[in-house]
Write a sequence for this structure.
């Protein structure tokens, strides 16, 4: 994909979840309309859904989303005409760049958003990345912020009544 | 054969001809996924690692159940079952000192060797590669450095720098497990290199066979990610601390005394340094070394391994490092206590008001002879053979044994007056000033200190037995045990 488009409110929701989780990492799902998910060039995010960081070790430097939670999120999204098309997580006190660990655990096709949180230089920076199909690199893609959703499109992120990205 | 469906996750459908459900024939869940990859080989790279095992973050569900709750990949399947491939999503910021992204992947041999590390999410492949590209400097390969070196090499720390210039002595074997009996007399660094290479040939051992001093410390320390202080003397301890602060390389500190140990991590960018804790060294006589005071052999093993633990954590960027905390270990009470350490806002070295900008003369700072100098300069000595002659002549000198009571049971010289070094000043009345006095200890260091004390008190005819009672045993009377 060339770019990831994120609504302003969805970005605000992710930043808030990074702030609340600090000094630990937050994580969650990126949702797109099922009709948009197959566009190879552009990934349009319609909302976000928080996930529980289930890393049983160092949640300040790691996040893990368990398969069962991903399955539940996919089911939830499907019921609302959405698809999980990526993930976001925060890097407390670290730049919004993928680590080696991020790359080794990444999946192709998904969009990955990384937000820096806390006291790092370039606070509040955010980057979008994807793994190339050969697993060789975790490359940065253009992040476009602010394109709104079409009026009347419901958001799938209302499952827990929090951090939804509908403007 | 059983007919099942493998459900491909959204991100991988592009590698499976866009299909969501792929029918295959298999008898187990693992075989079903294998069959899928056989049909769509492009999937394999994403599901299996280079060792041929399923990637850790790939989960397989049989209908609605994780196969880990059953028999894993061997879980049998029945007609009509759905085998789902579900990603476990993981990531994280990793450590500040990340391994270069272009570091080669682990070899099959490395995957086997470090398997128990790879199972830990906190280490994993990335962490193991980070360890492999990491460099740790161990200053002193004695009681603390020896166990630390063994564990760091075993853990796969790629480069271990070792600073030592000693040879292996039989008295080292009680605690320095890096060396074996056959190594006695060998240079420590030679023996260490052989042992570590035998333990883990993947580790590069860099010998620094020299005394760490103000002329070389910065240059050496700078080449490493972490320095591990295994020294047994104050001048080198301050030197290591100062070089650590000046180069920004964190210092994993450990020290031992008889039955007690201390551990901390001094990283001036994140907490206090050793000088914040002890701005000045103790008076030279106050703290005897292990060679003088003795040490329980297991103790440095515990402390050195605690240091190795902290070094590995720093390299991986995991856990809570012992920064700003001093861990006290008491082997007799078997207790661990922790003291909070604060950064000294006036620290001469690591505070904004630091006055010290470089390395200094550490022996002078600590008021001790330069390391390696046998005795404090100016202390008169007598050689064992010379003493033997003097004892056989008329008007022999008074012999004073300044060792501790426990040592008298090991060896003694007939007619010697026992006065422990620390009590010598209180016993001046028992020492006639008119007569010649020869003080001795185990190896000549404590008696030199005591001789200096007596000279300062006005005694004139006082000498210290060179090489101590061990020297006497070597040169005069082989029947006296050496220890």
């Amino acid at each position: 994909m060339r770019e990831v488009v994120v609504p302003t409110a969805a970005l605000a929701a992710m930043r808030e979840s990074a702030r609340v989780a600090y000094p630990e990492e937050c994580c969650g799902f990126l949702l797109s309309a099922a009709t948009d998910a197959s566009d190879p060039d552009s990934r349009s995010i319609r909302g976000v859904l928080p996930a529980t960081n289930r890393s049983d070790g160092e949640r300040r430097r790691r996040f893990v989303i368990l398969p069962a939670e991903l399955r539940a999120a996919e089911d939830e999204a499907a019921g609302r005409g959405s698809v999980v098309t990526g993930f976001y997580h925060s890097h407390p006190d670290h730049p919004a760049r993928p680590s080696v660990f991020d790359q080794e655990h990444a999946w192709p096709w998904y969009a990955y958003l990384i937000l820096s949180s806390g006291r790092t230089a370039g606070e509040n920076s955010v980057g979008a990345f994807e793994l190339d199909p050969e697993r060789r690199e975790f490359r940065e893609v253009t992040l476009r912020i602010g394109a709104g959703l079409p009026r009347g499109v419901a958001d799938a992120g209302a499952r827990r009544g929090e951090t939804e990205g509908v403007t | 054969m059983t007919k099942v469906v493998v459900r491909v996750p959204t991100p991988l459908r592009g590698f499976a001809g866009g299909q969501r459900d792929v029918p295959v024939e298999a008898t187990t869940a693992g075989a079903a996924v294998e069959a899928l990859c056989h049909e769509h080989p492009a999937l394999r790279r994403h599901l299996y690692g280079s060792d041929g095992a399923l990637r850790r973050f790939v989960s397989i569900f049989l209908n609605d159940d994780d196969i880990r709750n059953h028999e894993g990949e061997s879980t049998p399947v029945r007609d009509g079952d759905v085998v789902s491939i579900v990603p476990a999503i993981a990531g994280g910021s990793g450590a500040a000192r990340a391994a270069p992204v272009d570091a080669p992947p682990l070899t099959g041999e490395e995957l086997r060797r470090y398997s128990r590390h790879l199972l830990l999410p906190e280490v994993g492949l990335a962490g193991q590669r980070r360890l492999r590209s990491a460099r740790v400097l161990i200053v002193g390969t004695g009681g603390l450095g020896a166990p630390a070196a063994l564990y760091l090499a075993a853990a796969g720390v790629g480069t271990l720098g070792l600073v030592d210039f000693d040879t292996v002595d039989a008295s080292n074997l009680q605690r320095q497990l890096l060396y074996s009996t056959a190594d006695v007399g060998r240079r420590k660094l030679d023996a260490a290199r052989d042992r570590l290479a035998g333990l883990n040939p993947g580790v590069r051992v860099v010998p620094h066979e020299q005394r760490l001093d103000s002329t070389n410390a910065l240059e050496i320390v700078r080449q490493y990610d972490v320095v591990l202080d295994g020294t047994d003397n104050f001048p080198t301890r301050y030197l290591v601390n100062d070089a650590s602060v000046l180069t920004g390389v964190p210092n994993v500190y450990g020290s031992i005394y008889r039955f007690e140990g201390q551990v901390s991590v001094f990283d001036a960018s994140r907490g206090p340094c050793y000088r914040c804790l002890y701005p000045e060294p103790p008076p030279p006589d106050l703290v005897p070394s292990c060679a003088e005071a003795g040490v329980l052999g297991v103790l440095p093993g515990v402390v050195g391994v605690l240091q190795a633990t902290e070094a590995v954590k720093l390299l991986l960027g995991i856990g809570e490092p012992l920064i700003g905390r001093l861990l006290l270990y008491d082997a007799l009470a078997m207790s661990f206590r922790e003291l909070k350490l604060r950064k000294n806002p006036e620290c001469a070295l690591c505070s904004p008001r630091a006055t010290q900008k470089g390395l200094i003369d550490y022996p002078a700072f600590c008021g001790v002879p330069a390391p390696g100098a046998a005795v404090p300069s100016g202390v008169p000595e007598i050689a064992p053979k010379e003493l033997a002659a003097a004892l056989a002549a008329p008007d022999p000198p008074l012999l004073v044994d300044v060792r501790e009571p426990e040592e008298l049971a090991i060896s003694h010289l007939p007619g010697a007056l026992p006065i422990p070094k620390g009590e010598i000043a209180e016993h001046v009345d028992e020492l006639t000033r008119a007569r010649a006095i020869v003080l001795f200890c185990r190896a000549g260091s404590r008696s030199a200190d005591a001789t200096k004390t007596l000279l300062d008190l006005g005694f004139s005819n006082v000498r210290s037995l060179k090489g101590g009672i061990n020297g006497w045993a070597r040169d005069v009377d082989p029947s006296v045990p050496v220890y």
Q: What stands out?
A: The interface with chain B takes residues 25, 27, 37, 55-58, 61-68, 70-71, 74, 83-85, 87, 89, 91-94, 98-110, 112, 114, 133-135 of chain A (CB under 8 Å). Chain A has one domain: 3-148.
